[in-house]
Structure formats: C-alpha cells, structure tokens
Amino acid sequence: MEFKSATTDGKWQSTLPDPTNQAALDGPNAPKQKLRQILTDILLSENLVVLCGLGTSLLVKGNDGQRLAPTMTDLWAAAEEMAGKKFEEIKTTVKYVKPPPGDDIELLLSQCQMSERFAPCKLVNDFVMKAEGTIVDKCRFVKGDTTLSSHESFLRKVGRRSTRLPRLKLFTTNYDLCFEIAASHVRFVAVDGFSHTQPQEFDGIHFSYDFVRRTQDGEAPDYIPNVFHFYKLHGSVDWELRGLQVFKATNPPKPLIIYPRYGKFESSYDQPFIEMMSRFQLSLRQPNTGLIIVGAGFNDHHITQPVLSAIRANVGLKAAFVSPSLKDAPKEPIANINSLIDKGDWRLTLVASTFEDLVSFLPDLIAETEEELHFQRVHAAGEKK
C-alpha cells in the first residue's frame, strides 16, 4: 500500500518497511503507523460515512476462482454478444464513436437514449431493453453461499461502533447484494429504508428508526450493537417499482436501478434515489465526520460534486480515498484533492490500495462480543457437517 497526505509532505509513501532506514521501521513516524493512525482517527469520528464503488465487488470470486462481478468492459462484451450481427448497425444508427480510452457501454447507452428521444427506432429500443436485462443478469452474481470474507471483515471493522455514537452510514453505487448477504453472515442489521413487514416497502422514515433490546425486568432499553444504515444510491437488483411504491422482491424481471448512462444525474432526482442522495449530502455536512471512499471510479459527477463541496465547506470532515489507481489518476476529484494535500490540508489522504488490502490493514477498534464469537463457532460447526 502507498499513501499520500500532509503528514508525508505531499509525497507518496509505501507502508512496506525500508530495510535501509532503521528509524522508519518502528515508532509513530513509520509510514505504516502514520497511515494506521490516520484511518483510526477517521473510524473514531463521531459520524462515520463510507462510500463503496465497483472495486469492492471485483474481488468476489466463484468456486472456480474466477471473478464474478462484471466490469464495464465485461458489460460491453456482453452487450456486443447479445446484439450479434446487429451491433454495428446499432452503433451506426446512434452515431456512436469510440472514445480514446476505449469502448464505453455507458456512452453507447447514453447515445441510444438520446437517439430514442429524437428518432425512435425499434432496433435501438430492443437493444436497450435487452442490454439492460443483460446488465441485471451479470449483477445477480451473489448467492447465499458466496464467499464474502472481505465484506464481512469490513463490516466488523467499520460497523462495530459504540452505541452512544451515530450508526455507520454505508453508501454504495453497486447494484449487487454483497453487503446485504455479508451482513446476514455476520449478524449485522442493515437499516436500508425498507419495512420489516411483508411485502417490504420503501419509506425514508425507516432511516429514523433504530433497534433496542428490552429486558423483562423493566430496565430502560439498550441500543443493540452492530446496526448500520445502508443506502444504495443507484438502486438494487432486488428493488421493484409497483405503481408509485418501491418494494423488495426476489429476482424482479425489471429491477429499479439507474443504468450506466449519462442520464444518471437526472434519474437521481426520482424517488427513492433522491432520498438516498439527500441523505448522502447531509451526512457529509455533519461536524466531526469521517469519510472513507473505497473502490470508486469517480466518474459520477452527481456523487463527486457533493464530496468536493463538503471538503470545501466542512472543516470538520476527514476523508480517505482508496483505490489502486489513485497514484496516476489525473481526473477530478483526485486532481483537486492532490492539490489540497500539496497545500497542507491535513484532513485528506489518498491511499493506493485494493479493497481487500484495505480491509486487512484497517484496525479492529472494538473487540468481538461473546455473542459474535459464539455465532461464528456455531456457524463454522454447521458448515463442517
């Protein structure tokens, strides 16, 4: 892992020990200890906010060791295979031109959407419908027995907080069910805005509810641990729109998600997405807030702009940005954050790391309870049978 902050004088430093510099091997000034202290300070913030992107899902593998989550390149290939011989005709119809970085499924679907507004065409309309179905199928890779050890460990490290502090707020742009299934594996409770009755219906009022334990002897109720707020900014493969209401459903034929195209900003102002976005923006403006953004590509302006705005306006915001490609990322908001770090902004840290390595590096601030240890023993014993 490498990181850059004001504590490193604006230079990238590796957490690996330098055998030629004994003074840097140990002590609080060692790079590894510096980064651990930065992350610890963020985790101990009164308000903790985490934003997870595609990078947190790309490490999930199947029994054959193959990656399960699709990249944008995978989605392009799947759409091309689905369209077959008509693919070139579709690109020509919507005047798609390959951008310098390479083929872009988001750009193609955006141009299809624009073409449909001005010159509706059955060929393009059919392609969009089938491409959206392909995207959904590719994102339904998580099953009840999928190995999600990194997600589980991450929840334990960031979600196990003192019940006297506000609950962790975990936001994600992913459609998949990684965090939901991981939470069930480690018995965390995700408050996601849906009711606890059947059918599960979305209502933002549920984010103001909490969970307490009542004893039979009449004592005051206690807040239970291991509860976090969970917000899916771009929807989910198990959301379904019925009339004007959003429900959870098992494999709905047309899930309510914001598909990869340039209309994402406009779609984020529809319900329930505007509820999620407003809470994201509000959470970044709270005093004494710690923010970790991990695995994000920083391509969504409707998400990056609120982050940059909060950095400018909220002096009590401490933030760590984590992604393997940050060291060479020239685009916003990383270029802006690089500039602030170079000018001595101690609140900001860039970490060049995968999600998996970050999870291993994060400190365990609160020990596991006996209940958690007991559940793990019982669960492990059940798997061996």
Instruction: Give helix % range.
Output: 25-40%
User: Number of helical segments?
Assistant: 13
Considering the protein shown, what is the CATH homologous superfamily of the largest domain?
TPP-binding domain
Q: Could you give the distance between the termini?
A: 39 Å
Based on CA atoms alone, the radius of gyration comes out at: 22 Å
Q: Show unreliable segments.
A: none
H/E element order:
EEHEHHHHHEHEEEEEEHHEHEHEHH
Tell me, rounded to a whole number, the average pLDDT.
89
Integer count of domains:
2
Would you tell me which CATH topology of the largest domain applies? Answer: Rossmann fold
Number of E-state strands: 13
Structural class, judged by helices and strands? alpha/beta
Mind describing the biggest β-sheet?
A: 9 strands, mixed
Provide the β-strand percentage band: 5-15%
Shape: globular
CATH classification, class level of the largest domain: Alpha Beta
Strand order of the largest sheet: 2-1-13-12-11-3-4-8-5
- From the coordinates shown, what is the CATH architecture of the largest domain? 3-Layer(aba) Sandwich
